[in-house]
Design goal:
Length: 281
């Protein structure tokens, strides 16, 4: 679409405002906002809504909470206030699945702490044979999860949603010894650690923080996963690079083998390096 001089001026103004507000990838955010708000026929309304969105972004509201959609690994997902916005970090899980895993045909996969369902649905897209179960506790996040699952079923991408609290040690008992792969991008930031306002102020606390060292829920997941996994099943957890030694220790303590931390700058962003630890039961 070609822009009038008025549009060009408004885009330039937005570029300056976003930059002054400390937004780290101004061009990428600007592209999403222009795409969402400015490329419309009613120009006056479009420009007003575009600038309101720019001001919200300058107040560090996460982009996904403004535009209400995100493309994750080619999947058009609905997101918004109250749910964690998936990050490219998590695509390292899918790269590992594509290149290194040996998940048997027709087996069951758990995506724990599923949020809007990005990780589980991207697995279901590449492996339609798998029975993918997305597990989420928070009611608002669960609503986005159900919505995305229902939406994407129209593209023949199938997954199930299960609302449960992983802190309840019996919550997933029905999966005992029946799962070939558990994946999770859990909350892992230590309480009282200050992070970018997009996450500290505007994401649900439960989606970001987890105890004094950030490892409360990860400890639970590593212990519980041992119960759900079949022999030779895999556990894959996304976390911060500073946590790698502690997390490998947790895996080893629970008897996992082939324990390895993988990092990939290609999926990293301003929040840090993309990091996962994998282990085999
Ligand atoms: C970091 S977010 C990740 C969401 C999603 N996997 C993604 O990458 O977009 C962590 C998610 O864990 C969920 N969660 C936190 N505590 C939980 C618990 N005790 N049981 C189940 N889910 C929980 C949060 O509601 C949040 O949706």
């Amino acid at each position: 679409m070609s822009f009038s001089q008025d549009d060009k001026n408004i885009i330039e103004n937005a570029r300056t405002l976003l930059s002054e507000a400390g937004i780290w990838d101004v061009e990428s955010d600007l592209e999403s906002l222009v795409d969402r708000y400015l490329e419309r026929n009613n120009k006056e309304q479009a420009r007003n809504e575009f600038m309101l969105a720019v001001y919200e972004r300058c107040n560090r509201i996460p982009l996904g909470h403004i535009v209400n959609s995100i493309n994750f690994d080619g999947l058009p997902l609905i997101v918004g206030s109250g749910v964690f916005i998936p990050r490219t970090h998590s695509q390292l899980i899918h790269k590992w699945i594509d290149k290194e895993s040996d998940i048997p045909f027709n087996s069951t996969v758990l995506d724990l702490c599923s949020g809007c369902g990005a990780i589980g649905l991207a697995i279901a897209k590449r492996r339609p044979d798998l029975n993918v179960v997305c597990v989420e506790y928070d009611t608002v996040a669960f609503q986005y999860l159900v919505r995305n699952i229902n939406r994407l079923s129209n593209l023949s991408i199938k997954a199930q949603a299960l609302q449960t609290d992983l802190r309840d040690s019996r919550s997933l008992d029905k999966f005992e010894e029946s799962v070939s792969l558990v994946v999770a991008n859990p909350p892992y930031v230590p309480e009282r650690v200050s992070i970018l306002p997009e996450w500290e102020e505007h994401h649900p606390y439960i989606s970001v923080y987890s105890g004094d060292d950030g490892l409360d829920l990860i400890r639970t997941i590593v212990t519980q996963s041992k119960k759900y996994l079949k022999k030779n099943g895999w556990l894959v957890i996304e976390h911060h690079e500073n946590q790698q030694n502690n997390i490998r220790s947790l895996f080893l303590k629970e008897g996992f083998s082939q324990v390895r931390t993988i990092m990939d700058e290609n999926f990293s962003d301003t929040t840090g390096l993309s990091v996962i630890t994998v282990g085999n039961k």
